[in-house]
Structure formats: structure tokens, C-alpha cells
Amino acid sequence: MSDVVVLTDVRRDFTQGDVTIEVLRGANLTIGQGELVALLGPSGCGKTAALRCLAGLEDPDSGTITVGGADVIRVPTNKRDMGMVFQAYALFPNLTVAQNIAFGLQGAEIDQAAVERAARIAALAAVFAAPHWASGSGRAFAITVKYSDAPVG
């Protein structure tokens, strides 16, 4: 199994006024081809920051991010062939969990069993969701990486 997504020593800080908060401190993540991964953790631990860096919505302060072996840090967001869906903001209320996940995977060569596994994980995560304490970063729902043999960028 080859590694498709690799985050190595990724650091992301946020500064507001005189205060700097280190959200990601040397984060490492390896996702192999065909793997289904869920990022779990308490609110504010950096799940969304890591996903936003991977999707190209934010630049990490340091570290490397590769997809299919290619460094994507300087690749524009719209050229990364990725999508990010937030739990509370962009779901279709008329669709089931599985249908919402499948919608984001249209055109990807992913089998229905993978979509069903993702739906079961999402449904399980929803059991533990507590909207009264979940911050924006705690509401990260899923990121889907559609990988092909074509070069990134």
C-alpha cells in the first residue's frame, strides 16, 4: 500500500494581538491509498487546522504536506483535487449521511462499501457530538482526497 497523503512536522500558529496560540505542533499523519481515516479529539486540538492546511485553505507555518508524493504546499486550493465538508454548515438536510458523503465523492473511483464505512463512522461520531461545547474546529466532519495518477498542480 503506498502512502497517498503525508503531513510531516506540520506546525500552525494563530496570532491575535499579542497572543500566539500554537494549534499544531509538529503534526504527523500518513494516509495510505484506500485507507479511511477519522480525526478525533477534543475541541481546539487542531483537527480543522490540519484539514485546512491539507486542503490548501491555510498555509502551515512549517512542515511538509505531500499528496501522491508531490509537495502541495504551494499548489493552489482549486488545483489540489480535494474537498472539505463541515459538519454543520454544508450538509444537505434532505439526504442521509451516506448520501451526503457520496455527493462529495461523485466522479471519484471509490467503491460503495467505502462510502458505507464512512457513513457508519460519521453516524457513530454524531452519537458523541455535543453541539453546546463543540467549537468551529470541533465540528470538522470529513475531508475527502480524490487521488488519481495525474500529477498534482
Describe the structure.
The protein is α+β, with helices and mostly antiparallel strands. Helices cover 22% and strands 31% of the residues. It has three helices and six strands, in the order ββαβββααβ. The protein has helices at residues 47-55, 97-104, 112-128, and strands at 3-16, 19-32, 62-67, 70-71, 82-86, 140-145. Strands 2-1-3-4 form a four-stranded antiparallel β-sheet, covered by helices on one side. A two-stranded antiparallel sheet has the order 5-6. β3 (62-67) and β4 form a beta hairpin. It is globular.
Give the arrangement of secondary structure elements.
Blueprint (H helix, E strand, L loop, with lengths): L2 E14 L2 E14 L14 H9 L6 E6 L2 E2 L10 E5 L10 H8 L7 H17 L11 E6 L8
Antiparallel strand pairs: 1-2, 1-3, 3-4, 5-6
* Largest sheet: number of strands, sense, barrel closure: 4 strands, antiparallel
Summed up, the helix count is: 3
Percentage of residues in strands: 25-35%
Helix proportion? 10-25%
Helix and strand pattern? EEHEEEHHE
In terms of per-residue confidence, which ranges show pLDDT below 50 for 5 or more consecutive residues? 130-153
Give the quaternary arrangement of the chains: single chain
The mean pLDDT is 75
Biggest sheet strand line-up:
2-1-3-4
| Global geometry | globular
